[in-house]
Amino acid sequence: MQLETREAAAQSMLFKKLTNVFMQDDDYVKEHLHPDFLRYFSGYFARRSFSEDFLAWIEYMVRKGNLSGSVLDLAAGFGVNAVCMRALGVPRVVGLDIIDTKVTTSQRLAALVGADELEFVRGSAMDIPFADASFDGVLIVEAVSHILDPEKTFREVRRVLRPGGHFVVYEDRNAFHPRVRRNTKKCWARSEFGDRDTLAKMGGQVNYCEMRRDFILREFPDIDRSTAETIARSTRGHTYETLRIVVSAKLEGRRVNVSPVAPCVNPENKVVQERLTNPLATVSQLRRLGFKATVFAPHHWDVEHWKDIGGSWKGVLKRRLLRLVGPVAYCFAPSLLIHAVKHHRPPSNTRI
Q1: What is the distance between the alpha carbons of residues 138 and 85, in angstroms, rounded to a whole number?
Q2: Which of 10, 129, 137, 278 shows its CA 20 to 30 Å from the CA of 190?
Q3: How many C-beta atoms surround the C-beta of residue 221 within 10 A?
Q4: What is the DSSP letter of 122?
Q5: Neighbours of 333 (CB within 10 A)
Q6: Phi, psi of 83, rounded to the nearest 5 degrees
Q7: CA-CA distance, 116 to 285, in Å (whole number)?
Q8: Of 162, 17, 161, 163, nearest in space to 86 by CA
């Protein structure tokens, strides 16, 4: 299958219609898509334009990952990545997301731009609702950091991929990068303790600490508000399910070995808030699960991409030097790109 060049895709009717969406006023977007779509892509709506740089980013992942045939866009969000893949000539794309709002908004977007061979369904990345060997490729963008159990997701990806199928992981939460670590911890603090105005900018309404406190007050009516507040502050990273176990044990004077599921997690829907991702550990995990995996340069560190956007000769030299060092150097970029290919042999450990 021959993909469209980025230049040809940018001139396609599908991409032009997508670009037109970002030129509409706020009321139009709220009516035809969703207010969260407007918030999430606020930078593009502020300029009333949709840059080809976004398409270039998707094209880079598609080409580096050899994504073709039938591709699953896992944790597809609002569907923009999937539309771009279709514009690039990927024959069939299926988007999967666990959040109803994102699925319905993606469906509306696909209808609005007239995209065919594009489907959006609701489902969990940890329990993908498709048969074995259903896809030639899987793409997951900025979502491993939100998934409760990444290993379970990787096992599911391997299951739905055909032998020799390609899996691309893009993450912007590289645990090795100092600035990313600092910014992620600030994000955790806002999610845990932020006020209404702060949370509104993140698409939330109630901070996680308040959610845990209110859950404790509902489930354990004998606990007073002050005690519930204290327990809520000491149980960061717990879901309602594990919180119930911890609080019950505390009331009964028992000790239980129940650890937080993540440094920061929405206790109700179990969506992790920006887990830091270790690229070397992720590659090692994928290899153990039956993939051939390696780290690639993110698109902004790629020599050819840098030349395409008219980057300086110093930038070209820097990127060529990094290429000589090899994949380990890319592990220290703010974002990371991992390409994995499904082995024909089974994984070394079949534990689920």
Answers
A1: 12
A2: 278
A3: 8
A4: E
A5: 20
A6: -60, -40
A7: 35
A8: 17
Which residues have CB under 8 Å from 258's CB, separation 6+? 238, 242, 245, 246, 249
CB within 8 Å of 200: residues ≥ 6 apart: none
Sequence-distant (≥ 6) Cβ neighbours of residue 238 within 8 angstroms: 212, 246, 258, 260, 261, 265, 267
Q: Report CA dihedral (54, 32, 76, 20) to the nearest 10 degrees.
A: -20
Print the domain residue range for 67.
6-176+274-342
Question: C-alpha angle with apex 81: 76 to 83, nearest 5 degrees?
Answer: 110
In tens digits, the chain (352 residues) has pLDDT values of 567 777 788 778 999 999 999 999 999 999 999 999 999 999 888 887 787 888 888 999 999 999 999 999 999 999 999 999 999 999 999 999 999 999 999 999 999 999 999 999 999 999 999 999 999 999 999 999 999 999 999 999 999 999 999 999 999 999 999 999 999 999 999 999 999 999 988 888 999 999 999 999 999 999 999 999 999 999 999 999 999 999 999 999 998 999 999 999 999 999 999 999 999 999 999 999 999 999 987 887 788 777 877 788 888 888 788 777 766 677 778 898 999 999 876 666 544 3
Note whether 225 and 102 are same-domain residues. Answer: no
Q: Position of tokens 């990444």?
A: 150
Which residue matches tokens 């009964």? Answer: 252
Separation between Cα atoms, residue 107 and residue 104, nearest integer Å? 5
Q: 314 and 166, same structural domain? A: yes
Domain count, the chain: 2
Kindly report the CATH number assigned to the domain that includes residue 325: 3.40.50.150
Contact criterion met (CB below 8 Å) for 295 and 336: yes
What span, in angstroms and rounded, lies between the C-alpha atoms of 217 and 202? 26
Measuring CA to CA, which residue among 326, 300, 298 is closest to residue 311? 300
If asked whether residues 197 and 157 sit together in one domain, one would say no
Length of the chain: 352
- What SS3 state is found at 215? helix
For 127, residues 6+ apart whose C-beta sits below 8 A from its C-beta are 156
Q: What proportions of the chain, in percent to the nearest 5, are helix, strand and coil? A: 50, 15, 35
